[in-house]
Amino acid sequence: MGLAPDAPTLRERTYEHYTQGGRGGRPITPGYGYSSIAWIPEIEGSWALPLRHERITCWENPIDKAVWQLKQVCQHLPSRPITLWDNEYGCAPFVIKTADINADKLMRLRSNLCLWGEPPQYSGRGKPRVHGDKFKLNDASTWSEPTQIIEQLDAKLGRVRIRLWTTKHFRLSPQHPMSIILVERLQEDGSPRVNKPMWLAFVGEEMPPLSQLWKLYLRRFAVDHWYRFIKQRLHWTLPKLSTPQQCDRWSDLMPLMTWELWLARDLVSDNPLPWQKQMTQFTPGRVAQAMPGILVRVSTPSIPPKPRGKSPGWKTGQPRQRRIRYPMVKKRTTISRKAAQKTA
Q1: 3-state SS, residue 8
Q2: Do residues 181 and 163 touch, judged by C-beta distance below 8 A?
Q3: What is the pLDDT of residues 234-288, one digit of tens each?
Q4: Measured between alpha carbons, how far is 99 from 90 in angstroms, rounded to an integer?
Q5: Taking the model in full, what pTM does it have?
């Protein structure tokens, strides 16, 4: 359920990283981590419809969980999708583990990564080379000539320059070539507007046109809007639950409520607050604001609760037992036997 620093009786808590800072502004805070795969139904807007929303257990890692979820989702899709991934998944293990899944991948890369080009032709002597020239993202002196360069004038971002390099790969996945895209926002004089540009990597069968590909990745931020929506409006992190099973059952309601809001967007009438403007295309928050009109007409199938009377309370002399306190689960990276021998 996100942050849980003061819940020592909650089992299977792990140390999770929060980009906005956890308790006391610290990026590492005890809690639960979740992995979600969502369908982005519109070209614009903040709608993200979750297909799988599950907790990352203490014996799983985010990459293995995402690979399993992607495999489950792609089995039921009629065509090959383009999937969008944050920089946590822009790595060799993710590319290798998703190679046999019927999905194209567009991943964001960290700006300090080092990639490699195609190896030169075999000279006939010694072992054939696996890697070519080094391609360091934060060192322009290692960049080769781009395969394609275009400039666009975007209505929101202004002047944008996109560069493309092909046949690059991670050091640990030389059999999986990628196309690397650099997206830069420019000022009027052509100089970069921001210090850190956006690096993307495409792995798939057929890459869309470069003028459209970088805009597709911007739709990934709809998932961030959905997380904020379920935390603030659907109160995902509000209950203080006692067991992982209770957290999972409460979390399962979030996708269901999101899909109900999506299906009801054409049935509700806009009900803005006095300081809000009228809208023609409803956001999830605006649909949730107008849902009472539908709930009043539908009513509820449940029976009103019956009064129980005065509770007898705790019996005098009956012993009380303190709840069990569970230790934090520390996830460690597995080290191969060869690496362990080198460090020993």
Answers
A1: coil
A2: yes
A3: 999 899 888 999 999 999 999 999 999 999 999 998 888 889 898 888 999 999 9
A4: 13
A5: 0.87
